[in-house]
Amino acid sequence: MPLKFDVFGRDVLVTKVDRGWKAYYFGSEGKRRPAADIVIPNGVAESEICQYLADLCHEWATSRHPEVRKL
Question: For residue range 10-64, what is the model confidence (pLDDT) as tens digits?
């Protein structure tokens, strides 16, 4: 089952694939596109993805969107 996150105001979908994880940006209309700038290694556990995204994308943080949260 895909995991959905709000990554500092950007909607990101993460799915498990054969060699790890694949990230996508998704919009309200249901379309998604690969998030080539988000690479999640195979060794990251599902329970660690939210923190991993926060560490990886912390430059995106703003006062309006200060955190990563699972949707």
Answer: 999 999 998 889 999 988 787 899 999 999 999 999 999 999 999 999 999 999 9
* pTM, 2 dp: 0.90
Q: Please tell me the distance from the alpha carbon of residue 38 to that of residue 54, in angstroms, as a whole number.
A: 11
Tokens encoding 40: 């999640």
Name the pairing type of β-strands 20-26 and 32-34. antiparallel
**Residue 71 to residue 69: CA distance in whole angstroms:** 6
For residue 45, give every residue at least 6 positions away whose Cβ sits within 8 Å of its Cβ, in sequence order, or none.
none
